[in-house]
Automatic annotation (TrEMBL):
One of its GO terms (biological process) is carbohydrate metabolic process. GO terms for molecular function: hydrolase activity. The lineage of its organism: Bacteria, Bacillati, Bacillota, Bacilli, Lactobacillales. It comes from the Bacteria. Keywords: Hydrolase. This is Glycoside hydrolase family 88 protein. The keyword Phosphoprotein does not apply.
Length: 378
């Protein structure tokens, strides 16, 4: 149990570990995927979160995209040529051939969109999101994902997932601001409002993983840790980026959703270990590092943007930060990261997801540390 505020040890850990985490991310290989019974069917592998494309940095998909985003945000605290790594990664992907466009494969562009070398692809994909991406009832962005290969798709008809706002919504808003395409910004705002509407849990002020318009339910009504981190990150960034485009009512609505979510998150924080469980409201489920780091990154942003009271959330926030740093191995690997997680019908299904070194796990800790830097130094 962490029973006092971190001291100078926290600052020492910060500068030592942020470099190790970044170096591990850039060298992460699919060969580090956990040993698994490969005789299992694709459906059975998916149930435990084993998707071959997710491991390492060699694919163009959401884990690698989140990886690039965290690396880029932490670059000013890192030694080495981060921008050069990102550019080399991009051109290597062009040689290999890009995957079919879907919600998850948009994610790398969140890190790449403001580099000149990725300009043409970024504009093309933003226009595709706005005009052609699969839609649900009420014109929601259907959470289409990659199939077993980059040339296959899983359509998930009628479904919206909490992941979408971070994977695609942020990119569309940022591209709209960059290119003065108000329709793109407005579409990103609309998707944010729609996802809050259908994923918000009125009892806890937390968010469910998904909603199906076809079944008209929130699947297992599971309050998933990493899913809530996507929302805790996306909401303050969208509020800040689209500030001039939001109506007063939209801003009030989204700010209230974010503030209430943070209140709900701290009500279920496990203060024995200062982490959040992979099912937020189930202490029998394991503590999950990527979601914990992502939530804390969003909280640091909320404090920075004046959405959250510093004195209320920073003391516990620094304890959470120290707890996450304790999950970093000597090689820089972030421990306790759950693998890819489909929407499921039971809490137990989330608890059975395997834990493995993942690019997004490394990245979400980098994001947390990047946004925490001013508080560490002060």
């Amino acid at each position: 149990m962490i029973d006092k505020l971190p001291s100078s040890q926290l600052k020492d850990d910060y500068y030592q570990k942020i470099q190790l985490i970044a170096e591990k991310l850039m060298s992460l290989s699919d060969e580090e995927a956990p040993a698994i019974d490969h005789s299992l069917s694709e459906a059975k592998l998916a149930e435990i979160g084993f998707f071959a494309r997710d491991f390492g940095m060699k694919e163009w998909d959401w884990p690698q995209g989140v990886g690039l985003y965290g690396l880029k945000k932490a670059a000013t605290s890192l030694k080495g040529d981060v921008a050069g790594f990102i550019e080399s990664w991009f051109y290597e992907q062009l040689k290999l051939g890009l995957p079919l466009r879907n919600i998850n494969t948009v994610t790398p562009l969140l890190a790449l969109y403001d580099y000149e070398f990725a300009e043409a692809i970024s504009v093309e994909w933003a226009q595709w999101i706005y005009e052609e991406a699969e839609r649900t009832e009420e014109n929601g962005l259907q959470h289409v994902t990659s199939g077993e290969t980059k040339r296959e798709l899983n359509l998930h008809p009628g479904e919206i997932w909490i992941d979408t706002l971070f994977m695609t919504g942020l990119f569309l808003v940022k591209m709209g601001k960059k290119h003065q395409r108000k329709e793109w910004v407005d579409e990103g705002i609309y998707q944010t409002l729609l996802h809050v509407k259908y994923l918000h849990d009125r009892k806890t002020n937390l968010f469910f993983h998904g909603w199906t318009f076809e079944g008209r339910h929130n699947f297992g009504e599971v309050l998933w840790c990493r899913g809530n981190s996507w929302m805790a990150l996306a909401l303050p960034i969208i509020l800040k980026t689209a500030e001039e485009d939001l109506t007063t009512s939209e801003k009030r609505f989204l700010t209230e959703a974010y503030v209430k979510q943070v209140e709900g998150l701290f009500s279920v924080l496990d203060r024995r270990c200062y982490q959040w469980h992979t099912v937020l409201t189930n202490e029998e489920s394991y503590c999950e590092t990527s979601g914990t780091a992502g939530i804390l990154a969003g909280i640091f942003l909320g404090i920075d943007y004046g959405l959250l009271d510093r004195e209320t959330y920073l003391p516990d926030g620094l304890k959470v930060l120290q707890s996450v740093l304790d999950q970093i191995s000597e090689s820089g690997e972030v421990k306790g990261v759950s693998a890819g997680t489909p929407v499921a019908l039971t809490e137990d299904a989330y608890h059975r997801i395997i834990q493995a070194p993942m690019a997004y796990g490394q990245s979400m800790v980098l994001l947390m540390l990047a946004y925490a830097k001013k508080y560490i130094e002060n």
